[in-house]
Amino acid sequence: MDTEISSGVPLGAYTLPGRVADPRAAIVQAEAAERLGLRTLWLSERWGTKDLGVLAGALSQATSTLRIASGITHFQSRHPALLASLAMTAQGLSDGRFVLGVGRSVDAMWDAVGLPRSANASIVDYADIFRRLCRGEKVRYDGPAGKYPSLRLNDIPDQPVPPLVFAAIGSKGLALAGRHFDGVLLHPFLTPAAVARSVAVVREAEKSAGRPVGSVRVYATVVVACDLPAADELAVVGARAVTYYQIPGFGERLAAVNGWDVEPLQSLRSHPLLADIKGSADSVLTREQLVEVASVLPTAWTGEAAAVGSALRCHQVFASYREAGADELVLHGSTPDLIGPLFPTIKVGLEQE
């Protein structure tokens, strides 16, 4: 049964956030998430130790009710037949509990690894190809998403096509989700007001596409640090914020969505520890160094867009996101085995193993 606390909103959570040397921790976290009654466990895919297919398969066998979602992968990182094969295998193993989350990422990443950049036309067409393959159809395609003379999955389980969730920040991405996807995953560090504006864009796109209102499930990602000492709270919230705001272009988009002045981004990026970093800061800096950098961020950039403090305070923040129109919250930063204080009547952790 889905967990709904006083906020009245179903909850999910991320497993293995950030850099990970040992992916086996995902099993413990998934088991804790299921004991808590969370609705969805999101896999933070990163090349190296967080491969989507391997983790989805493992977690499908470690759980029985939990939905397993990728949050997020990218269409161009896998051939369409391989991605559809991964998804339907995960559907078969999990008895239909898999959710595929995809995103656009930034052009610099795709240029660096030699893969094509994302464009709206290719995203829409790839989603259609994916769904058709998952239904067992034969696909012949030549267009923005590539050239595929003949694609088909010969064997598919008796399971539905996994829901497709699109990660979006700006109005164009939100509208794309509203017209073509089953869900939209909102970025961490959006204020409730920003979430409300985002939901409005999605619902208007649904309407313009002739889809029933509420067709697209809105997942709002909320970084949470409940009942933690101040130093640990800063490590969970501030360090994660740095990894987003320091990326040129990306930080500006987050600030714009929240209606914030972008000037603090210059102060952040001029910090000596970030001086020569070209990619993501958490691929180079330690957690302690990220915390040091986070000290230059305005308090509002974390305090108004995250859930911190007591369990009661976090519940109140969750309720504000629900009132903003979120259908489900995705807790980030604190893994399921560490969010026990949010559920004082449920014991989680290794002591129950």
Automatic annotation (TrEMBL):
Sorted UniProt keywords: Oxidoreductase
InterPro entries linked: F420-G6PD/mer, F420_OxRdatse_MSMEG2249_pred, Luciferase-like_dom, Luciferase-like_sf
Signal sequence, renumbered to the chain: none
Presence of the UniProt keyword Oxidoreductase in the record: yes
Ranges where the Luciferase-like domain occurs: 21-327
Name of this protein: LLM class F420-dependent oxidoreductase
The keyword Oxidoreductase is assigned to this record: yes
A GO molecular-function annotation: oxidoreductase activity, acting on paired donors, with incorporation or reduction of molecular oxygen
A Pfam short name: Bac_luciferase
